[in-house]
Automatic annotation (TrEMBL):
Keywords from the named record: Metal-binding, Zinc, Zinc-finger
Organism classification: Eukaryota, Viridiplantae, Streptophyta, Embryophyta, Tracheophyta
GO molecular function, one term: zinc ion binding
Protein's name according to its UniProt entry: SWIM-type domain-containing protein
SMART domains on file: PB1 (SM00666), ZnF_PMZ (SM00575)
InterPro entries membership: MULE_transposase_dom, PB1_dom, Transposase_MuDR, Znf_PMZ, Znf_SWIM
SWIM-type domain mapped to chain residues: 582-622
Amino acid sequence: MASEKILTVCQSGGEFVRNTDGSMSYSGGEAHAIDIDSEMSLEDLKSEIASMFNFNDEPFSIKYFLPRNKRTPITISNDKDLKRMIAYHANSDTTDIYVTKISESRIIRSDVADSGTLINADITPLANFNEAKRIKVCSDWDNLITGVGQVFSTSKDFRDALHKYAIAHSFMYKLVKNDQSRVTAECTVEDCPWRIHASRSSAKQKFMIKKINPTHTCGKELTKESHKLASQRWVASVIKDKLREIPNYKPKDIANDLEREYGLSLNYSQAWRGKSIAKKELYNPFEEACNQLSWFCERIIETNPGSVATLHKSDDLRFRFFVAFHASLYGFEHGCRPLLFLDTFSLKANRHLKFLAATAVDGENDIYPVAFSVVDIENNETWHWFLEQLKSSFTLSRAITFISNDQNGMEEELSKVFEDSFHCYSEQYLIENFQKAMESSWSQEVKDKMIDHLKSSIYAYTADEFNDCIENIRSESKELAEWVLGTKPETWSDAFFKGLRYGQYSSVAVEKYNDWLSVRSEPSVLQIVDTLRCSLMEMMYSRRVSCNTWTEALVPSANQKVQEDMIRAHSFALVRPTGTVFEVSDESTNVVNTETKECTCRRWQVSGLPCIHALAVMEHTNGCIDEYCSKYFSSECYRIAYSLSINPIPDVGMPVCSDPFHIPGACSLRARRLAGRPKEKPEEPRIAIKRPLRCSKCQAIGHNKRTCETETQSV
């Protein structure tokens, strides 16, 4: 607005009304228009308003709303507040201020009867000017706690309501019990009977107030400890809207405003921390992250030709970042089993981001990261996008077995993108759900026994073995056995699963990623991705060096297993009925077909390594064992998997910013330190270099002049 004056509509005699969307409006009364400029003082404004509404000597307060915030009225109590109001509305044609007589300001207190129902109390005039202003700001928090039977969505919602209720009613409280299922609070003043208890309803759907003693004998006056009610998160939620309008909102002003409007006494550091959290919530850190990742995508493709790096940005500043290095893709397609674990996890130091990872297994059964994605939300859409990027990265077409937990929407999207693939649940996911289904009254010994039966059903090679495991569970609990059968055994038991898992049932990929990315401060997205790249580069190099010393045709772990099984196979009886089909007898009779690499025990087909019955046949026929093992267990395939390197990106620490007005680091994700004392690396011990002992007489080493025997020998 070019003019220095602002046309102001002054309203008085009405009341504030809370709308359904949480905003407030002023209803009733009369209105007058006046001009306000930056040179006007608060006393001049009050004088003009007093004569306008004929207030005479009666005290009154002046309030206004921020341009885009109709939820919290702001009080004008000094000249600085008046100048702020003029600055906030500098681009507006008009503004509204609301005038209320202090003598008319009243608070309706409510008491809760023993039954928990709400009853109206007397209307008492306020005697204190500052208290009147505070109460008017908090008036919408008076009835957040109504009594027994009031329902909240979660325990957090209840705690938030209780916090505001305590501020509005001027008392301190402490939490006696505080968890997701129950919350109990009582007044901090000794012998004050006020107490409230809430817990989950019987249906475990809602959080409900079960008991309340509404009586206060403490006078409900905020003490010097009132700053404890002003947590950092609460301060941030209160000042967020104002900070959006005034980026340079000073901590000192924040403390003064909160004390005037809410009656809470804050020190400078509390106000500063609350402002830091509010800034973090207001300024979206992903905008800068996307700017950096666009540059990083180009650098990955330049330094690692054949790699895939994709960044998808939406209009609402959400992003998805996908990376698959050429060395990992080539190694997976030519040297690893067609088996991928799909995992999702969050960093311990950064809960804002979600990681989607596709991890294979090499010949030594170690994890082999193939691709990963950084997203800000996990749902069907992000999983579909990740799987599409993963499929487009592959150059070979082959059926892949995917193993996962029950991630959000992943299983449904997997069948759409990889139509010819197989999907099964991980062992860890099944055990976790199995433990939830077990009866809590069972002893730990019984629970461990049931888990062993479940594992046996996962590893079962035939339907008979699977049924035996189910009967063992049924002998303890029929309901638990039916639960197991209802989880679709064809998606997790070797007896029915159509794909190939090669003996892999769960992955430690999440733990490995967290070890690689174990940082104490919240890193930026670029730092996270580059740290992961460096870890992958080091892993590829170290494993490539180690496998160059191998001399056997099979990798060490597979070779050791075959040699151990070969010892057990010596005692088996062998019959050769026709061609390549053999009968092997031990406690039972199994048929081995060396041409199709099958055995009726199904261990050969499931694991990819010859079973003990097949090894007995090979020993009898002097066959080469290596030829009957899956190629993915050969040292040659292992070397192929790690034959290529992930190249470094030299200038990753200094990305070029295309926007000359963009200041890197202005919206960094580093906003908090993890709990606990930071771990310090021990200093390397100083190496003490001992000076050799030299004789000053004969100059020989090893003795001094007192023990020198040169003179004695010469005499």
